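hey can u check if this looks right to u? its 249 residues, i copy pasted from the old doc so theres a chance i mangled smth
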Amino acid sequence: MNTLSTSAFGTQNQTAINSLRRWVDRYFYFAMSLLVAAIVIWGFSHSINENLFHAAPPRPILLWIHGAAFSAWVAFYIFQSALVRTRNVRIHRTLGWFGVALAGLMVVLGFIIAVLMGRFDKHILHIPDTDTFLSVPFGDMLAFALCAALAIYWRKKPELHRRLLFITTCALLDAPFGRIQYIFDHTLFYVCVDGVLLLGVARDLFVDRRIHKVYRVAVPLLIAFQILIVYLYRGAPAWWLNLGRSILG
């Protein structure tokens, strides 16, 4: 009897685990899109009032456009994830071209606003380290652009596409994480970003029982790139400091 009871319990337990795997497989990326939105709202709520809505001195108008584009990407990512979840794949693919245009706009705006706000912070607000801080927004835009381009290229391969879009979106999250003073002061914004990224790795291990090659390649490369970005910012090598000064004036 004990053996039969143990066997029945094991079967029920395995059934429950399999049901949870199916649920995670079905809803993971949509849930992550909502998590991204929550992080953005939480992070920017710490600074958006004094740095945008009621800023003194007023910030450049382009910062509002940049913020609108960033918000549009988050909303787009949620909507696209929902379309896939509800099996509206045709609409998802059609709207994908809006995402291509939006991603391109965000990259252009990202580089422009990095220089514009760098000059504003340096010459108007007199914030230190603005010359070397350029490595952060520049690096973010390079990571975002590369991952977005790969996601577009492999748009007809869902297993590659959805993971690359997740990584693309996560590449933007150091901005809201960096609005938390403690996280910024201790240079933990990329650690937080990687924590979100590792949820994708955990999903693969739980659902597929293996880590997809996208994560096996992209995550180590992204972490190495983040280390370089932080080194340029905090380490301030002379060549990078001089380049930042030449850009910001």
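Residues 27-248 form one domain.
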